Prior knowledge:
Residues 1-21 form the signal peptide. This protein is mainly alpha-helical.
Amino acid sequence: MKITSKLLSALFLFAVLLVKADDEVPPVPGGGGTGGVGPGAAASPIDMYVYVLSVVAIALILFYTKKLKSLKA
């Protein structure tokens, strides 16, 4: 039961951080300038891989939790 509650807490924290990550985008510069990246948008190449990184993180949590549990047994 302890492992499950810790896992759910970590998953909830990760979900909150994932939702809040999109909240802090800098404003688009005015005047029609392109800025240093393109048409005024912030460069965030990690955005394409958010879902993949989420699945990998959950898989690693499950793997190391199972590994730690088998070492204690």
